[in-house]
Amino acid sequence: MADFEIALSEGPNVKDLKIVWTPETGLPKIQSTGSSSGVLAKYKPQDVLQEKNLVDGLYVPPLDPKKQRKLARKNVKETAGAKWFNMPAPTITPELKKDLQLLKLRGVVDPKRHYKANDTKGVPKFFQVGRVVEGTAEFYSGRLTKKERKQTFADELLSSTQLKAYRKRKYLEIQDQKQQGGKKFYNQKKNRQKPSFAKD
Known about the structure:
Number of helices: 8
Shape: elongated
Distance between the termini: 121 Å
Strand content: 5-15%
Order of helices and strands: EEHHHHHHHH
Structural class: mainly alpha
Number of strands: 2
Helix content: 25-40%
């Protein structure tokens, strides 16, 4: 228990009432010498708070407002804004990244369709992936069957027979062009440089 001392002076004056309370901390008691040059007189409250070992052990320092604002900005989920109905930024998976790359190269997929050039080089920050639902007014040939519909855009393109035939044709054209400047072209060039009697 804590020690209480009440000292009343003679007379009814309330100003003379003296109350002293000392908490029980379990530490050895320091004998006061009565003079101001005692052990406790050396320490001031400001000095005690400035000591590092006491600060860490006794109280939590006040939070820095700059750090609080930075933490709050980090914790708020980023959105595209109110004009875009607070569309959140999606987590980019490898499959999603491949689909986005294919969308950028969509001009190569179909030779009869032409698209405007992309103004962004990297992956967009805010976007959504949806599924196209065909209208009832569309004819059956305009719709995809369940077998044709795939999980990702890349799988859909790879399974298309028309696209396979187009890719194969373009590949063979490119190979023919490259072979024109090969060994045959080199031999013809060398033959032209030879004198007329040495030509093949």
